[in-house]
Fold this sequence. Notes:
- This protein is α/β, with parallel strands linked by helices.
- It is built from 8 helices and 10 strands.
- It has helices at 3-22, 33-43, 56-60, 63-69, 83-90, 117-123, 142-160, 166-170, and strands at 26-30, 49-52, 73-74, 95-98, 102-104, 109-113, 128-134, 138-139, 185-189, 198-203.
- The strands form 2 sheets. It has a 6-stranded parallel β-sheet, sandwiched between helices.
- A hairpin with a 4-residue loop joins strand 5 (102-104) and strand 6 (109-113).
Amino acid sequence: MNENIVKRNELLAEQVIKGLKSRNMTGYYAATKEEALQKALELIPEGSSIAMGGAMSAHEIGLVDALKAGDYRFLDRDAEEDKRAAMLKSYDADVFLSSANAMTEDGVMINIDGNSNRVSMIAQGPKKVVFIVGMNKVCKDVDSAMKRARNVAAPINAQRFGLNTPCVKLGQCLDCISPDTICCQFLITRYSRHVDRIHVILVNDSLGF
């Protein structure tokens, strides 16, 4: 990566981390995917029960493979026949892994969800939430972060899931109410009442969607 982009990301990450701290959340900066993986494993004690949504960023840094191979209780909903039971069990997990569809320079996170299990577990349930967020997802303010979530993340995820929505065909949000829409619930995480619950690892890379 160009050294000027690296420097810019470092400076921007400092601003985001400061914003997170003011919102009772903890931020970290990882210069590489490898550093991000190391930091995530430091935050997750061995023996922990771990749940996750569809966080592609966690896969991209190798975290999911490391947890499955290590001394952890990984709650893999895709391996369960009863998906609802698996999701409900996840609410009592020690750690929930996620990413953000977008976040602001002052530490506000935006997430959109279809089934809503992901946003509901970010809001309440698991004892700790660890976010893996590429610097490509940092936006100026809530308005621009919401636009990114709706016009970048949502259409790509709808395409990934093979859904029949207008954004799949046009590549941008049309504020649809299609039966296939994944824009059912919007979560704005602007503060955490619970000390040491939300941790955000900012990665100097382009991760996720």
